[in-house]
Amino acid sequence: xxxxxxxxxxxxxxxxxxxxxxxxxxxxxxxxxxxxxxxxxxxxxxxxxxxxxxxxxxxxxxxxxxxxxxxxxxxxxxxxxxxxxxxxxxxxxxxxxxxxxxxxxxxxxxxxxxxxxxxxxxxxxxxxxxxxxxxxxxxxxxxxxxxxxxxxxxxxxxxxxxxxxxxxxxxxxxxxxxxxxxxxxxxxxxxxxxxxxxxxxxxxxxxxxxxxxxxxxxxxxxxxxxxxxxxxxxxxxxxxxxxxxxxxxxxxxxxxxxxxxxxxxxxxxxxxxxxxxxxxxxxxxxxxxxxxxxxxxxxxxxxxxxxxxxxxxxxx
Length: 316
Prior knowledge:
Blueprint: H1 2-18, H2 20-38, E1 39-42, E2 46-52, E3 55-59, E4 63-66, E5 73-79, E6 83-85, E7 94-96, E8 102-113, H3 116-123, H4 126-145, H5 163-182, E9 184-195, H6 198-269, H7 271-286
Antiparallel strand pairs: 1-4, 2-3, 2-5, 6-8, 7-8, 8-9
Helix pairs in contact: 4-5, 6-7
């Protein structure tokens, strides 16, 4: 009797021991299930909005958060990273500048969600918010472009262009309503493309040619002015140099005349010697090298070639 009882108790213990893994697995599954029902996971790149019977609360901290199961609480997720939005309609429409010129400007906006609760209350999701943002962007773009002249968009002179200022003005005009109405922070606004209608393009080309021609005339005028100044300065220097050279030449001639006067005094004493030297100088200048002359030796200064020419009477 006791042996049968002992065997029965041992058999029951083995059965319980055998079911422990199944029980543990069931507990784990139940824990996971309860965790999934009563909590939600938030990534570092996400914001969440918890809606409890229409009352909403934003959750921005990443990690595991408690929740009341659906449908009492509903969780809505939003991406908190920067987004680039290029608009949906009105991107390639013609817009008038301040001087009534047609221009086609396509813009983009870079933004991020900073107030998911405000965004949820106003539009429920980011797609609807971007649709409203597009309307604001389109209106602000037309308003700002209407304050600038065509030449401030397209110009041969980079200093006249105001693209950066226009982008900044659109950003400043868009930032306040985007933040206050939809909880969006505008990070940047940029012009993606810039164009003009075909008719305006032809007018722009003609205007650019005229501007380049005017600029060329200015450069030519400046060049002529500089050339004139250079010539004037060169002539002034020329006259100065010639004046100095003329003065030096007069001085040299005066000195030469003074020295020649001493020789003239000697020549007066010896006129035959003077005539002889003059003839000799003339002969040297006429007959320089390898010269063949057939001349009458009675003709001065070739009479010096006669024998005893030094004895000739100079008065002959």
